Amino acid sequence: MPARIAEPSAMVIAAAAAIVVAATAALAAASAIVVIAASATLVAPDKGMASKAAIDADVRAASEKFATQVRGARDLAAKAEGVLVFPSVVKAGFGFGGEYGEGALLVRGQPTTYYNIVSASFGFQLGAQAQTVIIMFMTDQALASFRSAYGFKVGVDGSIVVVNIGAAGTIDTDSLTSPIIAFVLDPQGLMYSLSLEGSKITQIHPDP
Description:
This protein is of the alpha+beta class. Helix content is about 35%, strand content about 25%. Strands 5-8-3-2-1-4-7-6 form an 8-stranded mixed sheet. It is globular, with a radius of gyration of 27 Å. Residues about 1-5 and about 25-45 have low confidence and may be disordered.
C-alpha cells in the first residue's frame, strides 16, 4: 500500500504565501526604481539648461568677439533680419556622441527667443573642445520661416550656407546672397566650412 503523502499544514501554506507576497513586492519596487531612473535620464537635459541671463551674457560676449575678430562681421549682422547665436556648441556626452548648444535669436540686437542645437556630428576640428555657431537670416521670409517651424532641421526646413573665411580675412557682404548664412568658429576665432546638414534647432524656454 503506497505511503500517504502528508498534506501541508496551514502554517506552511501561510509561510509560502508570505514569501510570494514579499517577492512580488520586491519586483514591484525594482520596477519602480527602473522607471524613476529612466525618467531622471529623460529630463536631465532640461534640468541642466542654462538661464536666460546666462545665455544672454554668453551671446553678447560671443557676438562682440565675432565682430572684433572678423572684419565686416558687424556690418553683415546689421543687415541681417535676425542673428541666432550659439556661443558654445560642445560634445553633448548624452551617449550618442553628438554636439549640443544653447543660444538666443537676436532681432535688432535684442534677444527674443531661445533655442538649442543638436547634431549627430557636424565635425569638430582636431582638439577643439567647443565651437561658436552664428546663423544669420538675411531676409524677412527666411526669418519668418525659421520662427514658424516647430523644430527647424537644416537641409529639410531650410538650407544654411556656412561661410569659410580665415579670422584675419574680410567678409565681402555684397557677395553673400544666400537667405541664411552661418559661421562656425573655434575659440581662437578661426572659421571652418563645416556642414550643419541634419542639425536640429528647437525653441527652448529657460528660466530667467
